[in-house]
Amino acid sequence: MKRLLENKLIFGNLLTVDEPYLVERYNKALKGFGLKPVKLDSFSIDMTGFSPEVANELNDQEYLDPNGVNRRFIILTPEQADLPVVHTKFSNTEELMLDFFNKNTREIFAITIKDVLFGEIEDSVLQVSSLEDLLSISQVEFKLSTSSDLLGKTAELQLMIDKLLKEPDAWRDDDMLQKMVDVVRVTGDISTNELMPKEVVFRHNAFWTAHFGGVYVFNDKKQVTVIADPATKGFRKSRPWEVSYIDINDHNLVYRFLLETGRVDPPRGSWIETSGLLEQRARMLVIGMIVEREPELDLSKLSNQILDNWVRKNAKTIERDGALPLLEFVRKKSHNWSNIDLDEVRPAHRFLISRANPKHEDLWLTNRLISEYLRFDFLTLFVFNKQGFYKSYGDWPENYREYVVGSLRDAYLKDKSGLRAKLYG
């Protein structure tokens, strides 16, 4: 993983924590979780407060996610809202955290001036042992704490203020008045600096989870759809009256579901001609085939001419595989996309010539699912399915790892948002 770290393809764009008071606050949050404080003077964190350096010192990569549910978080600064989430069991952790930051911006700012905000994204289950546990999660609540009990003192002060305003003789209670003064020294003026986050409950919508080797859950108005391996505990048994189950290995059913629910963008000239996605896939497909058959080949000097020569030399193999001829056919026919009959395309190859519908709210999750079927497409894999990318990276030969890292560094990292917009809408 050293090459990935050096090129910022893993644990990239994190926030460095090196101010002594912030390090101290972070350690207080760790103590609040019952964990040992760390002796690090500097470390980096993601949106949730996860730190790869802290995880290494604690020898626990799951220190903020001990059971794979009820994810913990540590917020030192509002700046964390602009960071990625680099370690999670649920694909929508980032979405939930962003919602919390956006709905409680003022309160988070006020709290983190004085203290660290930490807690759990609490749902209805303590651990996941079957699909039923996943399906029972419909919403989550952010359970919040501070190291100095700032939130508790704020709630206590608000109660005393209410009592003072509503009870005629409350102002005669000297003990209460003195207590109010003492609490204000900790909280400050809560009438101008609101400290209690107001939005703490959020919907748990469509998501992927690492549990059971990977499960996709899609929510529509009248239907919940689970896409997973049939060996998953509870598959087709948990809530069969309201949940539709699709075998993730059944390419035909998976694609049909995505198409019928408007989640997939089938081959149309409107996006094929402008995005360049199929050209990218064709190139990555050929390179993947070369690596599979000639793993020792030097990839540093690859050119279009070398790729074309290899394709001509291996024409029979390529024709038998069918993927590259399909990509070329669809690219040529894209100006008249009505001539492309998906029923004539092998189910496994339909994902080759499709992308997620950019107007659907499940855009990211759908592209992640598509990447499961296109492992050669390392760009889609890296953008939408980091866990899948790192798993595949571990199996690739050294020369291919070097080529992929160089390609991502030179093409994607220079303009991430621009390339995503161009290729995936």
General description of the model:
The protein is of the alpha+beta class and 425 residues long. The chain has three domains: 2-148 and 195-203, no CATH class; 208-247, no CATH class; 250-424, no CATH class. Helix content is 45%, strand content 12%. It is built from 19 helices and twelve strands. The protein has helices at residues 2-6, 20-32, 52-58, 93-103, 105-114, 131-135, 150-166, 174-187, 251-260, 269-275, 277-293, 304-313, 315-321, 323-333, 363-371, 378-384, 386-393, 398-412, 416-424; strands at residues 15-17, 43-45, 72-75, 117-122, 139-146, 201-203, 207-209, 215-219, 224-228, 243-247, 264-265, 355-356. The strands form four sheets. It has a four-stranded antiparallel β-sheet, sandwiched between helices. Strand 7 and strand 8 (215-219) form a beta hairpin. Helix 7 (150-166) runs antiparallel to helix 8, helix 15 (363-371) packs across helix 16 and helix 16 crosses helix 17 (386-393). The longest helix has 17 residues, at 150-166. The radius of gyration is 26 Å and the shape is elongated. The model has no long low-confidence stretch (mean pLDDT 89).
Q: Structural class of the helices, strands and pairings?
A: alpha+beta
Q: Indicate how many domains the architecture comprises.
A: 3
* Strand line-up in the sheet with most strands: 3-4-5-6
Low-confidence stretches: none
| Mean pLDDT rating | 89
Work out the strand percent: 5-15%
Number of helices: 19
Write the layout of secondary structure elements.
Blueprint: H1 2-6, E1 15-17, H2 20-32, E2 43-45, H3 52-58, E3 72-75, H4 93-103, H5 105-114, E4 117-122, H6 131-135, E5 139-146, H7 150-166, H8 174-187, E6 201-203, E7 207-209, E8 215-219, E9 224-228, E10 243-247, H9 251-260, E11 264-265, H10 269-275, H11 277-293, H12 304-313, H13 315-321, H14 323-333, E12 355-356, H15 363-371, H16 378-384, H17 386-393, H18 398-412, H19 416-424
Parallel strand pairs: 9-10
Antiparallel strand pairs: 1-2, 3-4, 4-5, 5-6, 7-8, 8-9, 11-12
Helix pairs in contact: 7-8, 11-14, 15-16, 16-17
